[in-house]
Amino acid sequence: MRQIIINIRKVLFFAMLLLGLVSCNKEKEFTKAIDIQISGYNIGNAELEVSIDEVAYDKFKIQPNSLVNFGKVHTYPSHQNQASLKVKDIISGKEVFHQQLSLNNNELEVFFPLVLINGSLLEIKPPASEPSTNRMAFYIYYPESNDAIDIFLKDKDGKISYLAKNVQPSKWGYVDYLTAEEFNDPQNTLRLHFTKSGTTDQWAFKDSEQMSKSPVGTLLLPGFAEKGRVCTYFVTPGSNQLDVVRLFKGAK
After folding, report:
1. Mean pLDDT of the chain
2. Measured at the alpha carbon of residue 70, what is the angle toward residues 122 and 98, in degrees to the nearest 5?
3. What letters, b where the CB count within 10 A reaches 16 and e where it falls short, cover 160-188?
4. For the chain, counts of helices (H) and of strands (E)
5. In 78-144, which ranges are E strands?
6. Residue 33's CB: how many other CB atoms inside 10 A?
7. Residue 8 neighbours by CB under 8 Å, 6+ apart
8. pLDDT tens, position by position, 125-178
9. 216 and 189 in contact (C-beta within 8 Å)?
10. Residues 6 or more apart whose Cβ sits within 8 Å of residue 146
């Protein structure tokens, strides 16, 4: 009888030890997070909804003919290796964007450019980087005209610095660009101007000065002496202003 009791105690001990080990493993399970950013533009009648692993973010619905500006810190258990990021057209139910995220590489933030034009994704083609200069790309959506467009910076004193010339609407335009020193002063009020090619005062969009200018604050243009950057932009006149959208990840 005594031996039976000893054996029972041993079984109970090992059972409790096993439960303790399981508890310890559970304590090691923790929550991780990743910052997910989507930036771009939604042209057309589609209303878009973003979901991560089938959880839809109703508060982040993207309206027709408006900027795409989705940002969410997504939390997940540390054992999870992947997550599914989707964007769908709410009205048709069509999935317009799908990206499988790898969660086991310790990446803290991911960025995706997304431009939807009447239900079709624009293929975003950033140029290859070049250490000796900055590579810039512009895509202008303006179906009202096929006229080529010049893009330049103009400061408060009227000085001009061209970023690109003869950019054709509905095509990617690529240029190499270095910022002049006088355009790197943070106190210098700069605006991007879009004009008909070969002019500085014939406005590119709707013959309107207001619709053909944009502030540069959020565009992260290269600063003086900066080289090796790749900057990609989508440009279209919105309902009451010119929208110039940065399609690359900002520095933290």
Report:
1. 87
2. 50
3. eeebbeebebeebbebebebeeebeeeee
4. 1, 16
5. 82-89, 95-102, 109-117, 120-121, 134-140
6. 11
7. none
8. 999 999 999 999 999 999 999 999 999 999 888 899 999 999 999 999 999 999
9. no
10. 168, 169
